[in-house]
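hi! just following up on the protien thing from before. the input was this:
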Amino acid sequence: MAGDLFGRDTLDDMEIVARRKVSGTVREALATPSSESFETVWQAALKLTFDGIPGDLHAGRTRRSGSREPWYSRGTEMCNERQISLVSEEELAAIAADMDLAAIEAGWIGANVLVAGIPRFTMLPPRTRLVFAGGAVVRVDGDNAPCRLAGEAIGRNVPDREGLDLLFPKAGRRRRGLVGFVERPGVIRPGEEVIAHLPEQWIYR
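and the predicted 3d structure came back as:
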């Protein structure tokens, strides 16, 4: 960075990308049928509260830490930034093609919302606000790293193929979708518009 007259760093050499909007469409709304199930099933609408989706496996304002948070002792209570899982129709199709599958259903990998029309959906940056026509707003925490648990679920739905649990984490890298939390309660319905409000972006070096 360049320095000013007082020796302080300035941002002259940092590229800052202006905030913008990208619109898409909700294809499916899904939730777990019980707190014991990983896979999700179709819903006519999702009613979101500050706790997420009532009755869903990932509902709650807090959650217990797991393998994704090695900086905490496992089971530590922490804020729940993973209330909602969102995936892209286009990215699931690309993953399926790379795995030589006819299709991967959003519900197989535990998604709550399937969207279409937003390019490189998984690469939307943290702090992006997903504003749904039904009033709900989901704040993106970050990408949802593909894991063997989701791969095993795909394998259960495609029983004539072996090794999908190991193949999915590779094929789904940076295409497995996003997780976020409810910033404003509301309703999400299939067929409605969703607008991604991207914040200003820069690379911190």
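Helices lie at 89-98, 148-157, 164-171.
The longest helix spans residues 89-98.
cheers
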